[in-house]
Amino acid sequence: MAPARVLDVDPLLDDPQTRIVVCCGSGGVGKTTTAAALGLRAAERGRKVVVLTIDPARRLAQSMGIDSLDNTPRRVKGVDDSAGGELHAMMLDMKRTFDEIVEAHADPDRAAAILGNPFYQSLSAGFAGTQEYMAMEKLGQLRGRDEWDLIVVDTPPSRSALDFLDAPKRLGSFLDGKLIRVLLAPAKVGGRAGMKFLNVGMSMMTGVLGKVLGGQFLKDVQTFVAAMDSMFGGFRTRADATYKLLQAPGTAFLVVAAPERDALREAAYFVQRLAAEDMPLAGLVLNRVHGSGADRLSAERAIAAAENLEDPRIVDQGDGKAGVRNSPDTQGSSESAEPESGAAPDATAPGSAPTPSPEAPSPTAPGTPADPSAGTQATAPDDTPERSVDGLAAGLLRLHAERMHLLAREQRTRDRFTARHPEVAVTEVAALPGDVHDLAGLRDVGARLATDRPELPDPGA
After folding, report:
1. Which residues of the chain have a pLDDT value below 50?
2. What's residue 124's pLDDT?
3. What is the DSSP string of 3-64?
4. C-alpha distances out from residue 202 to 16, 96, 194, 246, Å
5. CB contact set of 153 (below 8 Å; sequence gap of 6+)
6. How far apart, in whole angstroms, are the C-alpha atoms of residue 93 and residue 100?
7. CA 242, CA 144: separation in Å to the nearest integer?
8. What DSSP string describes 431-458?
9. What residues have CB less than 8 Å from 228, skipping those under 6 apart?
10. What InterPro entries does the record tag this protein with (predicted)?
11. What is the pTM for the complete model shown?
12. What are 53's strand-pairing partners?
């Protein structure tokens, strides 16, 4: 199998033609950390960067040492600006962004009526697709200000592949839909005539809507639609402009995934959708890749060694009677001379044991205290320290075997993806022992992104 193409991140970040980098992927794969690390690396290489995150976990603020992020870009302190770069960060405030649109495109009286409308408040706070649409709006605003060299976007943590791109179409379809046109009809006719038209010509429709939605809710919707009528076209126009901006050569999409089957399946769908939408894909960031500094020891050999330690063979037993066999004293051995039947042992014979007198207590008599000066050997657990060391070693070998199985599984999953998408460049980032919570951690992730360095850090480096 041909090796996968390597994604070279630094030329992408250094290219002045690259103005937008969009990190997309399914939830929980490290998009926020990747976006922040890319922004930091680009800033320390001389570019003026703003990172826009839509992640509700708010880890980006913690990593960058900012107490809180909001709808206004804030400069990040502690960044090496010797190359002339800057790093700013912000978090999308969905409702505030919607309010800013209303305030910018409506006169004060109409804006006040819209902002106070109950239906608008519900729509701006939680309508399906509003977050993704407002992300597009905010991206368009940032790009229109032309204040930053590079905008890095952390897309919403949605499992549905490209809600970030689909939301403008869905919201536009909602605003142009039949329901909106029905509700807008009275306002277009005007005054009492309009209400008469609605009551007479569409009494059945509004009766059904009133029962389903509630009379007051329907009235709030009608008021909202009437106030927003002049703005509907602007939503679609701006969404279309931002959509074209994402298709432009100055934009680069990075798909972020983990080396797991489900995550790479989602990544494959992202790749296909981006190609279908003519979006410029820069490559795949394969995050949290596991490694080992002892990969020469296979899982099979590690398990075999662990089994040998846990179930020792005869060669691993204690010495037994080897010390007695090798002793010059042959008492009790097969080489001892046995007396003939009925013959008394010769007390003067060399190597013979004297016959104990009847008065002498037997060494094995019950209740007889043991002589502390006697050289008797106490019975102890068999090789307890050695066995504990063997058990620890066996446990470590089994852990290594599990790690090697994990590495093999990740490699198979990665190879399956690259075989199906050989055109996609890939860079790998090692699984870190803990969460990234400061600029030093983001800087290390950025270095790994740029150098395709999946191995663990060298302690001596």
Report:
1. 1, 161, 187-195, 197-213, 314-315, 320, 323-325, 330-380, 456-461
2. 75
3. PPPBP-HHHHHH-TT--EEEEE-STTSSHHHHHHHHHHHHHHTT-EEEEEE--TT-HHHHHT
4. 57, 36, 11, 42
5. 20, 21, 22, 23, 35, 52, 54, 135, 139
6. 11
7. 10
8. PPSS---SHHHHHHHHHHHHHT--SPPP
9. 114, 120, 175
10. ArsA/GET3_ATPase-like, ATPase_ArsA/GET3, P-loop_NTPase
11. 0.72
12. 91, 154
Asked if residue 89 lies in contact with residue 38, where contact means CB atoms within 8 angstroms, the answer is no
Q: Do 45 and 14 form a contact (C-beta atoms < 8 A)?
A: yes
CA atoms of 194 and 182, how far apart (whole Å): 12
Task: Give the residue from 387, 381, 385, 431 showing the smallest Cα distance to 410.
Answer: 431
User: Looking at residue 225, what DSSP letter applies?
Assistant: H
Tokens read off for 291: 């490694």
What DSSP character marks residue 80? -
**pLDDT tens per residue, range 337-346:** 444 444 444 4
What's the pLDDT at 158? 58
Q: Which two tokens stand for residue 460?
A: 């001596």
Which residue, 131, 246, 235, is CA-closest to 174?
235
Letter string b/e over residues 127-137, b meaning 16 or more CB atoms within 10 A of that residue's CB: bebbbbbbbbb
- Nearest CA among 166, 151, 141 for reference residue 71: 141
Name, in order, each residue with C-beta under 8 angstroms of 244's C-beta and a sequence gap of 6 or more.
Answer: none
Residue 428's DSSP bridge partners are 286
Residues 286/427, Cβ–Cβ less than 8 Å: yes
The residues facing 216 across adjacent strands are none
CA distance 136 to 140: 6
Q: 290: part of which helix (H) or strand (E)?
A: none
d(CA 35, CA 22): 8
CA-nearest of 417, 429, 347, 453 to 4 is 417
**pLDDT tens digit sequence for 231-279:** 766 777 887 888 888 899 999 999 999 999 988 998 998 899 899 889 9
From CA 71, how far away is CA 436, in angstroms rounded? 23
Could you give the domains of the chain? Answer: 9-294+410-451 (3.40.50.300)
The H-or-E segment that residue 86 falls in is strand 86-91
215-228 vs 203-213: helix axis angle to the nearest 10? 110
CA Rg value for the chain: 39
Residue found under tokens 């620890």: 392
Contact call for residues 137 and 94 (beta carbons, < 8 A):
no
> CA-to-CA distance for 124 and 138, rounded, in angstroms?
14
